[in-house]
Amino acid sequence: MRVRYxxxxxxxxxxxxxxxxxxxxxxxxxWNEFFGNDNPIHIEVGTGKGQFVTGMGKQNPExxxxxxxxxxxxxxxxxxxxxxxxxxxxxxxxxxxxxLKEFFDDGEVGRVYLxxxxxxxxxxxxxxxxxxxxxxxxxxxILVENGEIHFKTDNQGLFEYSMKxxxxxxxxxxxxxxxxxNSGMExxxxxxxxxxxxxxxxxxxxVEAQFQHS
Length: 214
Prior knowledge:
Blueprint: H1 9-14, H2 31-35, E1 41-45, H3 51-59, E2 64-68, H4 72-85, E3 90-93, H5 100-103, E4 109-115, H6 133-142, E5 143-153, H7 156-169, E6 172-177, H8 192-199, E7 205-210
Parallel strand pairs: 1-2, 1-4, 2-3, 4-5
Antiparallel strand pairs: 5-7, 6-7
């Protein structure tokens, strides 16, 4: 993803610490206290400009959402969306997904969303893919028992890789669509990328995968 540098982004993010959490490691195991309720906590890894996580927050006020994004210059747009829509159940983290266990306790998260993640198509970059086994282990640890990953992509290569990765890891597929926008699914919140790709006629793949604990 090409990111246009915004030198003022860091300062703006810091001015809204009620939304963009400055020291998320201090809230590990205490996220429900921070939100002020006992609602489930769902996270989006790679939240981009925040259209999905903000839309989900509006659609589901009984769920707490946290959008995770590495790039300040992208996250600042997500912040603007949350401020504009005035949603109180959506927070943001400017952190690296590889450090998830520093910010969330075991079993603290109800669901993980992965939307249009970077496909990292070269074989030598496999470990950077958000559906690589190392990341699946991170998600499994922070998720509730039998928690789910909801995954969307337009990239057939990443989709096929992810299906193999999920299968190898032993996840159960509860939902699978090879053409989401012709599937009849209701309530789908689109990301910016999803709108762009579907407008071009690209197929959108969607999967709900569940960890299995006997």
